[in-house]
């Protein structure tokens, strides 16, 4: 059938009907809210490049989590800014580490929350790289040990999901085994499976104080030009026991999200990263775009591409809008 029998606009005139034929639905339940925890009490330091986001001490973080849960955002992703850093990131593996403290405090006060703990060394190493440095580069195999130790420590503190973001080869298998050996066989792993070496992480590195002190991350994070390689990364992580696979960043990588969802049929997460967030905020603050409208369009596009889970700094603002429908 062609025009004039077919008129695609017929389904667009009536708002009720338009809603009925909506194909993609964004839900508050899809959103994960990333948060940064730092030492101290009563601390809420604004992150200048990420308006509305803060480095928070544990007490303030607990309040922020209560606010999130009250809006229906029941899942958070935690990053730590430790008091002291060290050469190998051992500080991230301690029972009284900053994220471990935060997890315990949140769990003591809030029942209905899912805590996803990011596992990586870059926030905890003096050099800002994601692992142990040997001969001027991140050494893959020795880094696996700290990642496994950090994962077990976070699980012991009460983390519900372990999310390794380091991009070392073999880390999912190693972490899975370490979790199982320590009685955490029920703890899922959300792997940052296809994580690209991206300029969009800029604001995060201010937030987490994790910028590399020399070089960049291109010997471990992926080349933005590659798509088949992302499939190999995802396949490797699934093979090693990943329960959820993530693509990161999201917006410039919608094709990757689409391919991952279609080729693997796995629960798929996408990380709407700091730079993507900050661009919307910056243009919105200048009234160059309608910030809320663009935010919802961005999130919807990530869902439409195939993401089941969206990690986003927009989570609370988006929840307010979704709750108002
Ligand atoms: N490896 C740690 C990590 N986990 C999440 C992000 C970035 C998140 C964001 O930009 O919002 C990074 C930074 C990086 O790889 O440099």
TrEMBL record:
Name the UniProt key words of this record, in alphabetical order: Heme biosynthesis, Lyase, Porphyrin biosynthesis
Q: Which domain of life is it from?
A: Bacteria
Q: Which reaction does this chain catalyze?
A: 2 5-aminolevulinate = porphobilinogen + 2 H2O + H(+)
Give the EC number(s) under which this enzyme is classified: 4.2.1.24
**Tagged with keyword Lyase:** yes
SMART domains hit by this protein: ALAD (SM01004)
UniProt enzyme class:
lyase
InterPro entries per record? ALAD, ALAD_AS, Aldolase_TIM
A GO molecular-function descriptor: porphobilinogen synthase activity
The signal peptide stretch is none
Pathway(s) served: Porphyrin-containing compound metabolism; protoporphyrin-IX biosynthesis; coproporphyrinogen-III from 5-aminolevulinate: step 1/4
**Protein's name in the database:** Delta-aminolevulinic acid dehydratase
